[in-house]
Amino acid sequence: VVERNRILIVDDEEGICWALQRSLQTAGFHVTVTDRGAKAQTLATSQDYAAALVDAKLPDFDGLELVSWLQMHSPATGRILISGYYYDDDQAIKDAIAEGSIVGFIAKPFDLRDTLTIVTAAIDHSWASAHGK
Amino acid sequence: MLRVLLANRNFLVQMRRSAPDTVGHQIQVVLPAALVEVMQLETKIRRVSRTGEASEADRVTYRAPGVPNRVYYYRLVPLGEPPVQRIILLIDDITERARLEDGVRQAERHLANLVQCADDAVVALDPEGHIITWNRAAERFSGLLQREVRGCSLLSLTTDEHWPVMAETLKRLAQGRSVRNVEMNLQTVFGSEVSIAWNCSPLRDPDGTVVGIVAVGRDLTDRRQMEARLIQTAKAAALGVMAGGIAHELRNPLSIISASAQLMTAYPEDGDLRSEALYRIHAATQRSALIVENLVRFASPRDVEFRALDITQVLDTTLEMLMHQASLSHIEVAKSLMDHAVVYGSASLLQSVFTNVILNAIGAMPDGGTLLLASREFDEEQIEVTITDTGVGIPADRIPSLFDPFYTTKPVGEGTGLGLALSYRIIERHRGTIEIRSEPRVGTEVVIHLRRRNEDA
Q: What is the pTM of this model?
């Protein structure tokens, strides 16, 4: 059973993880943070997350590859790409949304209230898809 | 009455006369009348006769119709006290000597003209370095006229920065050694300075003693301006390639600053949160400032001054700026650099070379790999810098074209094909070498040799 308040943050920028974690925790979420794609895979294998915020450029992984992997192995997790590299009108982002590998995109720098809205929407969306609604 | 009393044989031969039709005849008959007139012979003879003093030696050119010009040297010497009755006319045909003198004078003028009209500064100095001649190009470069600088030491016109090099150069020249292609800037009368590459040689007398110095200087301004434009073009191209990486690099600290401020606004009562947020804002601001500073340093036109520099430091600075670019492609960076390696060159030019080569290496490893920067002492004169990637490699038939301008395998907008062409020219200017070895699917190695000292090749 997916707990609807468990969130995974994957970013090698410690300060960004701190701000996101702080903001989401206050909103009632249970947040796990990691800085590597491989560690995120391990975590997602042993634990179901309602949403995952994945940085596009990780030291060991391309963020788009990681969300595709999550789509395969943890389809009920709401996958959000977070990036200072892409824009939301970049073809790579449009393609990822069209393919369903991500359900949300957050451009850096971000508004924490928007982030919360996107996370909540992603959780609802994925929950609905996973339960065939 | 001006009558010839005696004529020697030489006179008769030169004037093509015999003794009977000379001795006892009027001088106006013996010598051509026109010559007597131009010599003002009658006036001069009267004066010598009256004063008893020999006339000044004089020289006259005689033009007889249909005969080549003749040049005579003559003098009148009195015999006895005034009023002198007998006078010796010493006259010599110096046509041939005059012709030779004219030739020499013309050759001198011709040479002086060549020196005057040369595009390069041509300066003659005494062995101590004081200016003797200063041609028009030297006047143009410096704005100082020959009469203003004659006698001044060339050292006194040298910029403070190049003063030690000039002093050393003059010392070498005084010891009889030549100096080739040394850059020493002069101060101009306009308050600016002019970049000049000098070739200097000692002048020796037949015994081998140094009696002077000839210095020929070429104005590097035009070449500099063209190079500066090319470097800017190549930098612009590199910046285009780097833009995505730079944006990413800046947006991370910006995100931290923004999010920290938002958290402080949302929870104004939380003192611990405020302290932590402020600390993070401060750190992220400093990081952003550094990114911007590096960027501006790279992008802005800088001097291309050559000096002794630590190549390890140049490599480290370059790498620091490109680290993020490398990490975006999951490239591992390894370094095997000498602690301290001095080469003679321009830090900003060499940074352009390393930036281009490293960006190429990163571009060759889209799926990650290892970038290795290594340096070592190649020999007494050279330091070797090697930049190796484990990327896609270059087919053997393409290697000869790599240094051609506008040769690129990158898609339009991603490369100008100027990077390596420019790098080649820059290394050439350092009198070094750059070589590329590559094997498809194994990687590429760029080997650069740089000179440790500014000495003749």
A: 0.52
